[in-house]
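Blackboard transcription, Thursday session:
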Amino acid sequence: MNAFLAHLRTAFRSNSAYRSDTVLGLLSTCLQVFISCAIWRMLYGGNRSIAGVSFSMVATNFVLAQGLGSAFVFNDFAVQRKLSDGSIATDMLRPVSFRLSLLATNLGNIIFALLTRFAPMVVIACLFIGIVPPASTGAILPFFLSAVLGFAVLWSISTVVQMTAFWIVNVWSVSTIKNVVVNVLSGAFLPLWFLPKGLTQVVRYTPFDCIYFIPIRIYLGETSGVELFHSWVKQLVWFIAIHSLATFLWHRGRTRVFIQGG
Amino acid sequence: MFLYCVRHVGRSRFQYKIDACLRSLAVFLREATNVVVIGLTLVTFPDINGWKPSELMFMFSLLFSTYGILIVFSTGLRDFDATVRSGSFDRYLLRPRGLLFQIIASDADWFAAIGHGGLGVCLFLVSASAIGVPWRPATVAYYLAAMVGGVLIQGAIFLVFAALSLRFIKTESLREVAYWNVRKFAVYPISVFPKFIQGVLIYVVPFAFVNYFPAQFILRKQDMAQYPEWFMYITPIVGVSLLALAYLFWKGSLRQYQSSGS
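(Written on the board underneath:)
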């Protein structure tokens, strides 16, 4: 446990060393959200609501999805780099679980980003863009739980991509495709309310709406009661499924490293 | 000398033929998804200030085709901040060839060129035939001149970022903010945006001259009435002048870098 926290703290601290990077990161996040909102305000024209979706809901979708997205950054190349420079051999000999140390490093970066990018951006958005407050005080805690589950799903997807490094020399193509699919199907740039009906059905059977869309719906109060419970279960099930795949790939990948006589 | 470098870069980039194909395809697909997202958005919002989807595609294609040509020459500029950080740039200073020559000849991201350029060509062919543009010799000549102008304008932007890399360590986030984020507005005709945003797109990061005004030259849409008519014709001139200004800024920054004793 101590080693886990140590990794986390190191990652967190190394972020705070670059001041200008931190400021630019916040600026970039704010600009991204601002641009999406500006474009959609233009698209809405004078209308308050289109197809039952108000502009404030769209703005809230961008603030939450792109804000969390700017914080939930994973290094898809972590395993690939350790394989190519050989440090994976020493890492696997350490008493700390290799995968847990990767997670700890990720969490350190993410907590830093949540504090320096997400939180300030939300405050700025509240002041300048009309976002919707939580549907009720009863929606806040369920939203947080759902956001954590959404993070878990995204983390497990990234882990699967990282594990492919054992078989593919360069994970860049897989990582790029993953990012593209997540960006489109998670609703971060095109709110899922506006997908054509057929595509919406397809997305419902994928893990991608678990990442941001389900938490956002809870926040907006669109989901409550039994449906709320179903949403959490769906997120949890996808997390377990993808995480199991990642674990499976990890074990198969490890044997490959040993066979090559590392 | 330049041709030697070109052949060398080409050989190293295409050494792994299948990998080269996959990478180009990955870039193409990644950018195509942006087009798909916008296409899906246009399903709900089919009329943007009098511009039909095919006309928007026609304007959009210029962004991709000019970037495809641009990146062949400015990959070195794009990655310049890494070159400075690693110290390789100081080696360039010692060589008997011009600095910009070395930077431009040092690398060419053919995968990005094929991906972006290919997408630009596809979009152009589909939209131009859907609109039924009457291609007269003068129209063709201007379209080509405007493409060159667009390449020069963006080249000037990249050169300015490269010059800034001499003073600031990491300009990648700045480029993300000031180029890629602003470019998102250029997908839509600038007339739909508030005056402030129009100002940025015309006078600060002149994407309007890369695709909006050249498209207006050919399409002559109603919303052109709010701008001086000669804006439609001057893209090549804007390109040359901006590149000249950027070059002066580059020279100035270089003098400062060298005199500070590196």
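Lecturer's comment: The mean pLDDT of chain A is 86.
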